[in-house]
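STRUCTURE:
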């Protein structure tokens, strides 16, 4: 068997990075995911800081631009405007950070948000494009935290897919009795429903949308 040995420091899985076809990312989950780490911290347990690594293809070069730090935990990064955007929560300082980085520049914090701006870190994530910080909570609400602010109810089987300009694309499913899907197009940031399409909306690599019915 032929293989290439990649030194990740024990991180055994790499994910595709939203917004890029050349970057992959990986993290260890020593205290679970971001929400589980938050719960442990709130219960006064010491959380082990997780690590975030980035790998660029086809060079297969591994980077760790922001070192692990006690009390800090990473979410998933995205790629926007030529930079990797890194989500990090510092539980000790009670802040959410978005950090920009690429190979030609050191990590630079582009915004710092009080942790109190979110109910909790459940499904707290960066999305593109444009870059925004959102949260889809367990209470069937979708929150836009930065750079705009908005919060609105969504259906129990509705989940966020992506943003396109001033539109937010959600998908929802039914079993009545057969399984079927709908695409819900909402305005940003108020969440008002503009259109409901029968079927699922798939965006192709060249930017075209296919409505699969």
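SEQUENCE:
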């Amino acid at each position: 068997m032929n293989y290439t040995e990649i030194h990740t420091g024990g991180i055994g899985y790499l994910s595709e990075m939203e917004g890029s076809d050349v970057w992959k990312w990986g993290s260890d989950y020593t205290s679970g995911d971001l929400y589980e780490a938050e719960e442990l911290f709130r219960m006064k347990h010491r959380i082990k800081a997780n690590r975030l690594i980035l790998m660029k293809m086809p060079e297969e070069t591994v980077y760790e631009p922001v070192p692990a730090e006690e009390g800090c935990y990473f979410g998933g990064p995205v790629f926007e405007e030529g930079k990797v955007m890194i989500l990090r929560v510092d539980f000790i300082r009670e802040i959410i950070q978005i950090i920009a980085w690429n190979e030609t520049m050191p990590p630079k914090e582009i915004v710092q948000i009080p942790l109190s701006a979110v109910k909790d870190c459940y499904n707290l994530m960066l999305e593109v494009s444009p870059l925004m910080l959102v949260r889809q909570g367990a209470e069937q609400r979708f929150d836009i935290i930065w750079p705009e602010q908005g919060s609105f109810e969504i259906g129990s089987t509705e989940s966020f897919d992506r943003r396109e300009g001033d539109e937010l694309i959600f998908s929802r499913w039914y079993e009545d009795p057969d399984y079927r899907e709908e695409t819900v197009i909402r305005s940003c940031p108020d969440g008002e429903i503009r259109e409901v399409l029968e079927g699922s909306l798939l965006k192709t690599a060249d930017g075209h949308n296919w409505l699969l019915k």
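REMARK: Residues 74 and 88 are 4 Å apart (CA to CA).
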